[in-house]
Specification:
By secondary structure, the protein is mostly beta strands. The chain has a single domain, classed as outer membrane lipoprotein receptor (LolB), chain A, CATH 2.50.20. The protein contains 4 helices and 13 strands. Strands 3-2-1-13-12-11-10-9-8-7 form a 10-stranded antiparallel beta sheet, covered by helices on one side. A 3-stranded antiparallel beta sheet has the order 4-5-6, with helices on one face. A hairpin with a 2-residue loop joins strand 7 and strand 8. The longest helix is centred in the middle third of the chain and has 17 residues. The radius of gyration is 17 Å and the shape is globular.
Amino acid sequence: MNALAQTIIDAHGGLTQWRKFKKIRADLSQGGALWSLKGQGGVLDQTSVTVATDRQWASHAPFGSLAARTEFTGDTISLVAESGDIIETTDAPRSSFDGHTLETPWNSLQLAFFAGCAMWTYLNTPFVLAWPGVECEDAGEWKEQDQIWRKVVVRYPDSLEVFSKVQAIYVDPDHLVRRLDYDVEIAGNTPGAHYVSDYAAVSGILIPTKRRIFPRLPDGSSLPEPLVVSIDLSNISLT
């Protein structure tokens, strides 16, 4: 982990504090155009999400009326009944998105994979910068309306399942993350600008409770609409 990553992580509470915990859980409210576009409107509007902080694992509970919960491990995605029985599962789920565009509908396992992969990455940022094989470099200043942020390019290793191997984060003068950029490879490399705000202090860790994702233009600017995804977190706990 380089000095830049260390500074960003320290601003969010520090790695020593973060590593006291194994999981982060929150109530989750979601909206935006993506879910209906993918034929999955309403499934994850209101649910809870739990992700591991020391391995790739995430779960949404409930998964609409389709399952009691999901299990994302990076290599697999499963829908699980209240009894613990596996309703449906698949290995190497990423390959099922081959040839997809933004408009390609998802089946239930694809929705569960996307949601698990996304929330694991989001809730582990910026502490994921300390993972083996993750690299980041300073890409200079970035002007966001009337604010000056710093852009940081992040490269993920093959050992981590993320939907974009090269991403960017933007930090404010206090080194808090304010935006993430990525091209969603499993949806035709669709570019997104993902804004985070409304930080809350939870067990010594600063966590954004509001996320809004918009289309991103080739020059890096974002469009004010459509709202692709909205994410609001509440009742956050670290255990």
